[in-house]
Amino acid sequence: MNIDVTSVIDAMTGALRKAAGKRWSAVREVMEPELRELALTIEKVGAMYATGEIDANRASELVAMQRNTAVSALKAIEGFGAIAARDAIAAAARAAGRLVNRIAGFTLI
Amino acid sequence: MRKRVKAILAAAVVSVLSCAGLFVARYSEEVDRGAVELQQKVDGFLTELQNTAGTAEGDYEGHEQFYGEVHDDIDVLRTAAASQRGNSLTLQSLDLIADNVDALERMHAKGITPNEVAVARQLLDAQFRMLVQLENAKKREETP
Description:
The complex is a heterodimer of chains A (109) and B (144).
Chain A: H1 5-20, H2 24-50, H3 56-104
Chain B: H1 2-18, H2 29-52, H3 64-82, H4 88-110, H5 114-137
Helix pairs in contact in B: 2-3, 2-5, 3-4, 4-5
């Protein structure tokens, strides 16, 4: 069983890019090395199974761990997006606060 | 007078906008530090297990306590994270790490090889790194 790591990385990157949407450029730097690492473990498990070093049961146990790690990546992307949105709103609120204070003529906020 | 009314209305809008912080928890040093410490603890254990797997020293018997301790540490982090609103992603990330620790324990109990430990180590390490990155990303907003 030969696994083409580049194809795996490309497929995972494509899926995560889709999940991240416009936030992809912001999370790319963090996520790409993690995806590469994950793909390497997939290749390693494939090779271990192909050489008979592990049986199908052990392979599926390791794949289940990989699936969990991939979900962790999705959770992180979701979190980065929520944090970016919160920061943008906070920045907008600060800017609006300055404007309000100017209109009020004193420090209202 | 009209200016003052406008300012008060705008202030109300800004106050509502400021509540956005409630939807994402603030940075917690306790969770961040705890996650880094747990990552080091798990990595240290797996480094040792990678060297001893397949020998009597690496047998599951005698290591049950480690898995119990990791679960206790995760519970402490869960409690700290749950004390803040908007921390569901951190809680879910901790649960995913706990699931992988359980999977590792099951494999260890059945017998595990150094190569299998190496894979588990890479995966758990990646999960901890992403959790720590997530916690650190929360920090940015605190420096306007």
